[in-house]
Structure formats: C-alpha cells, structure tokens
C-alpha cells in the first residue's frame, strides 16, 4: 500500500515532490482532482507504452477529463458507462448492442451533447474550435 503522509514525515531524507504512487484515490484525497487527473494520464500512458502502442496524450487527457469531471473519479468501464446520460455515448464503448437495445426499449432520446455522440453521427463536437461560430459582417 501507499502512505503518503508517513513519507512526508521524512522530508529531510526524501524529496516529497518526486514521490510517485499509482493509487489514484490516495492522490485524489491527498493532492486533489488535478493531481489525480495527471496521475491517470501517466498511468494510462504507461500501460500503452508497455505494449508499444503509441497514443497521443490528448486522447488520454480526454479519458482523464471524463473520469475526473465531477471532482472525484468514476470508472471508465461498462459499469461507468451505465451512468452516462447519452445513449450514443454508451454505444460508443464496448457493448453497443446492449446499450442500443436498452435505449430503444426505454424510448431514450439523445440530445447529442457528448463529444462521442456527436462524432458518431458526423457532427462537430462542442469543444475546442467547434465550441463557437465566427461571424463576419458583410458590407453591401
């Protein structure tokens, strides 16, 4: 296990700014949500790196943002997707048929608010440069 508080007691001998742990919950409780987000990105990148899979950090940032968006962290798996508000977002994960069937049986409506739902139907996401329109007055 990890005990960051105990390590902090030895700051004369240990550089506490360089201490690492993969216990995301402990990081969240000790340092806050931004530190937990950064640790998630690091851990995800190490998993892909171990298998020699190159992944752009922006993709990992999106995952970490999703997991920490509400001030804690939520699972990025089937059970975590069950709570997603968007049916299409749920379908973009692993078990598309199950989520599609559930959405159809419950007459769910998707307002295409999540980036994955918008991408799935070919719409521009409402983030980054897709977040606004530029308008210019035309002179007559």
How would you describe what is shown here?
This is DNA-directed RNA polymerase. Belongs to the RNA polymerase beta' chain family. It is an enzyme of class 2 (transferase). With 140 residues, the protein is mainly α. The chain has two domains: 1-76, no CATH class; 77-132, DNA polymerase, domain 1 (Orthogonal Bundle), CATH 1.10.150. It contains eight helices and no strands. The protein has helices at 4-8, 24-31, 33-50, 57-68, 78-81, 87-91, 96-105, 115-120. The mean pLDDT is 82.
Query: What integer is the average pLDDT?
Result: 82
Structural class comes to: mainly alpha
Specify the overall morphology.
Answer: extended
SSE pattern: HHHHHHHH
Main beta sheet: strand number and arrangement?
A: none
The tally of structural domains comes to 2
Helicity level: 40-55%
Q: Helix tally?
A: 8
* Total DSSP E strands: 0
Q: Measured on Cα atoms, how large is the radius of gyration?
A: 20 Å
- Distance N to C terminus: 71 Å
Strand % is: under 5%
Stretches with pLDDT under 50, minimum 5 residues: none
Give me the oligomer status. single chain
Pfam family, one: RNA_pol_Rpb1_5
Domain RNA polymerase Rpb1: 2-87
Enzyme class: transferase
Keywords: DNA-directed RNA polymerase, Nucleotidyltransferase, Transcription, Transferase
């Amino acid at each position: 296990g990890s005990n960051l508080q105990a390590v902090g007691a030895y700051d004369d001998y240990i550089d506490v700014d360089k201490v690492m742990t993969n216990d995301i919950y402990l990081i969240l409780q000790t340092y806050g949500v931004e530190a937990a987000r950064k640790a998630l990105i690091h851990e995800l990148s190490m998993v892909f790196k171990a298998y020699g899979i190159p992944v752009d950090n922006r993709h990992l940032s999106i995952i970490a943002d999703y997991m920490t968006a509400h001030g804690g962290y939520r699972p990025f798996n089937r059970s975590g997707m069950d709570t997603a508000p968007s049916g299409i977002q749920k379908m973009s994960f692993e078990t598309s048929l199950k989520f599609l069937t559930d959405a159809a049986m419950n007459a769910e409506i998707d307002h295409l608010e999540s980036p994955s739902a918008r991408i799935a139907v070919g719409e521009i996401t409402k983030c980054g440069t897709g977040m606004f329109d530029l308008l210019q007055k035309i002179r007559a």
